[in-house]
Amino acid sequence: MSKVKPKKHLGQHFLNDLQIADDIVNAMTAFGGYKEIYEIGPGTGVLTTRLMKKEEYKTTVIEIDTESVVYLANEVGLPKDQIIEGDFLKLDFGNIAPHPVGLIGNFPYNISTQIYFKILENKDQITECVGMIQKEVAERIATKKGGRTAGILTILVQAFYDVEYLFTVPPGVFIPPPKVDSAVIRLKRNDRKSLPCKEETFFKVVKQAFSTRRKTLRNAMKPYGLPAELLEDPIFKKRAEELSVEDFIDLTVRIEESRK
Q1: What residue ranges define each of the domains in the chain, with the CATH number in brackets?
Q2: In the chain, which end has fewer C-beta atoms inside a 10 angstrom radius, N or C?
Q3: 87 is in an annotated binding site
Q4: How many whole angstroms separate alpha carbon 19 and alpha carbon 163?
């Protein structure tokens, strides 16, 4: 059987560098004590074959491409009960993995942002994630307070995970080569179990603050109809990218209190 052909509509760029594959797999640390790893979008199995050699883990893959599913079973030798054919974004992952797990993958570039939102939905199960994504997105997720690349994912992910930018990956190690550099980042679940505000409100405040990222919070938060005395606080003179996770949590708490 010939190798799987990468499909543009699925955002597939297959890694073709075995050393980088080793580096990605070895970046998993079993943080949180998980015994099972889920790989998203394994494609031709370059990461999968290395994960299968890790006796301390059980490896399960999630793959939407039927051609890849057949290849992984017949050529890579992955047991069929360790292959989930489907769209990770649409799976009820909490039921599939109700216990702590690790997540890994060369994530399809066209859905990488959505994957991290899905991780946040399942943060109580996913204690560690090592993912290869576009460098631009990786820098945005990993940037610190005040970084001009900061965005919605910066705050939401860092509220619940410690993020490490591990290394950059050039286009030439993929088939076909993407038009941008890639990067590998690692997420480890932090100690924050809950927020002192409603999580739904926190997410909405962060998204609204970055909706007009070049404006001050005073202008960005106008749709919330906040009381004038609250808007006088110096924090509303800042832009969203200037705020830390803790700043956003505090801001959300105060917004909720102003509505009581």
Answers
A1: 8-189 (3.40.50.150), 199-258 (1.10.8.100)
A2: C
A3: yes
A4: 23
